[in-house]
Automatic annotation (TrEMBL):
The chain crosses the membrane at residues 163-186, 198-215. Belongs to the ligand-gated ion channel (TC 1.A.9) family. GO terms for molecular function: extracellular ligand-gated monoatomic ion channel activity; transmembrane signaling receptor activity. CDD domains: LGIC_ECD_cation, LGIC_TM_cation. Keywords: Ion channel, Ion transport, Membrane, Transmembrane, Transmembrane helix, Transport. This is Neur_chan_LBD domain-containing protein. The lineage of its organism: Eukaryota, Metazoa, Ecdysozoa, Nematoda, Chromadorea. Residues 3-162 form the Neurotransmitter-gated ion-channel ligand-binding domain. It comes from Toxocara canis (Canine roundworm). Residues 169-236 form the Neurotransmitter-gated ion-channel transmembrane domain.
Length: 240
């Protein structure tokens, strides 16, 4: 996941009188030469800087206002509920906060979240992306006091696009089951009725076995419950 995280704060040590410096009210300097908030995403598996911090410039005004945009490429651990697969919807939380500054030292002012326009993903669509703040208390290393930190939770809601699974798996399976059931009631020749029914049954079972291999390869593995696609296929198999 590629994140664009804009930061802004006021630094009293970066205030100057513009009239004493030829009217200069704004400067850009490398971000690695400044103090930066130690914002951290706690539930990440891996993080990479998509743009090195040495190549990112901070924008500073004469009033001490600092603005810097950080870009991070992160792998986030998100529990998935696939019981309604392929019509499922997943919720992923990004837990963001300061690692070393308590709430009386650092607070967050969350602006509106947004998702930039992009070409989209062939399998997922973004439903919403929201943010909320909460205060978390942790015992200190001595165990004799509570340290309070302000944390921001960004909630990303994703919905799977089921068209591929409907066209490639569900519709062909439904047609196979329908043809096999109808085939049991159509008229047969007097000589080969038994052979034709046996041949139809074997052909249907072989076809369903091929589809089963496709389903097992596409269906996510989970012990929390059988996905909806698996339940439908099991029902089709019993019908045959």
């Amino acid at each position: 996941m590629l994140l664009w995280i804009p930061h802004s704060w006021k630094d009293d040590y970066l205030v100057w009188n513009a009239s004493e410096w030829d009217g200069i009210t704004r400067v850009n300097i490398p971000a690695d030469q400044l103090w930066l908030p130690d914002g951290t995403i706690f539930n990440i598996l891996d993080v990479k800087e998509s743009i090195p911090i040495s190549r990112i410039f901070a924008r500073i005004t004469s009033e001490g206002r600092v603005e810097v945009d950080l870009n991070k490429l992160v792998d986030v651990r998100c529990p998935m509920d696939v019981r309604r697969f392929p019509f499922d919807q997943q919720i992923c939380d990004l837990q963001f906060g300061s690692w070393g500054f308590q709430i009386h030292q650092l607070t967050h002012h969350v602006k509106d979240t947004f998702v930039p326009k992009h070409k989209g993903n062939s399998e997922w669509e973004i439903v919403s992306f929201t943010a909320r703040k909460q205060i978390a208390a942790y015992e200190n290393s001595m165990g004799d006091a509570q340290n309070e930190y302000e944390e921001v939770f960004y909630t990303l809601v994703l919905r799977r696009k089921p068209l591929y699974y409907v066209v490639v798996i569900l519709i062909p399976t439904y047609l196979i089951v329908t043809v096999s059931i109808i085939g049991l009631f159509i008229a047969h020749s007097a000589d080969g009725e038994r052979e034709e029914k046996v041949s139809l049954g074997l052909t249907t079972l072989l076809t369903m076995a091929v589809v089963l291999d496709m389903v097992s390869g596409q269906m996510p593995r989970s012990s929390a419950g059988l996905p909806l696609l698996g339940k439908n296929y099991f029902l089709f198999w019993v019908s045959v």
